[in-house]
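Late entry, evening session. Most of the bench is empty. Finally got around to the prediction I had been postponing all week. Sequence below, unchanged from the version circulated by S.P.
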Amino acid sequence: MGFWALLDHIINLLAPAFWLALLLPVMSRLLIKKSPVALTYKTQAVVMLVVGCAVLVAGLVLLGRDAKMLTYLALVLVLATLQWWWQRGRSPRGRR
């Protein structure tokens, strides 16, 4: 496999985590307006991207191939739980 094909595979593997990390904080702020947010949008997106990529790579390692629905389910559940945690006003550094 050449460099460009490998890069294409990596980008396609991590694309769901990227888009979910960008869209979930924006949509949660639009839909749930009154709840406090513990972190800034940029911080939320970066943390969600890292956690989402870790979930996708773990799914690849544990299941032996990518694009399994179980991996996508884990990705959505983990990132939604993280967003729910932050919407309740909690941050990784403690209560603000």
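Two things to note before I forget:
Residues 38 and 93 are 10 Å apart (CA to CA).
Residues 3-87 form one domain.
Will write this up properly tomorrow.
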